[in-house]
């Protein structure tokens, strides 16, 4: 029952992860998220089901892990240090990424397994470091928390992605970013 | 194939709807959303499957229709005509309603059937009339569209409901409402 096994660091661990991630991607394309099972994934990846349960806990967590890694929500842009410029550039990239077919598929796949109570996946935690980096690069505090920025920029993208017909209005996230940056500017004494 | 049947207005139509809605609610509680089928619903409601397909098109639309009707997203408050006061009062009620067990279950059930492209359900269309009523009651235009208000107030509630761990911060929607109202005030010349 409670056989404990040390996590093996290094090469094998990474190879298992890559094989399992690849298997999930292939099988979702072949049979769809709803028909996916842990034994199928294990067989395709050449590992045991217990390896998958030990590492990911359950299928929903595994699918969500795979989906998140396949998307770029980090910051590929060179930061200028101007909060409005940087946030708008990132917001535009974020909207493009999420409103793509892989982005929508990721959100859809994650939501199929949502329990209605705990977070469906770490989508917000994935953007927080980028938002904090942009806030920090702006130099003096701009009077906004990462949460406020995420509510203002990320929330409309995700809400409309899910609850409005596609595609999103062009510039939705960019304009939200510029608006929240303008509010921030009025909060900060000019340097 | 193309047998057309006139929709019968009045009593029978409403009774069918009530029976089907009740059947969906009972069966979701008993077998869960994932196991729900149209023939099951039809049998429980005492109608034929083709009645359900004719009226709702598919199971996802039916479930979403049932879910939306079970929630209050209209405006039970007496409007004062002060935009900030009215929007904050409604926002608080909206958050309470959505962050309840029935609210979360509704969103979860709707998202299970989401195709990733078209709107998962008419959740935003359901709030738009209320938001427009509040905007109109405020008298002179407050310089905000219903879309902007929905992005500012509804989006953070829905996004955090889905992608953050429960429960939502108290006052999330109310504070968002007060912020968007404060921005609006600076857009409008004092009367």
TrEMBL record, chains A, B:
Pfam families: TetR_C_11 (PF16859), TetR_N (PF00440). Keywords: DNA-binding, Transcription, Transcription regulation. Residues 37-56 bind DNA. InterPro entries: Homeodomain-like_sf, HTH_TetR, Tet_transcr_reg_TetR-rel_C_sf, TetR_C. Residues 14-74 form the HTH tetR-type domain. GO terms for molecular function: DNA binding. It comes from the Bacteria. The keyword Cell division does not apply. The keyword Transcription regulation applies. Transmembrane segments: none annotated. This is TetR/AcrR family transcriptional regulator. It comes from Gluconacetobacter tumulicola. The lineage of its organism: Bacteria, Pseudomonadati, Pseudomonadota, Alphaproteobacteria, Acetobacterales.
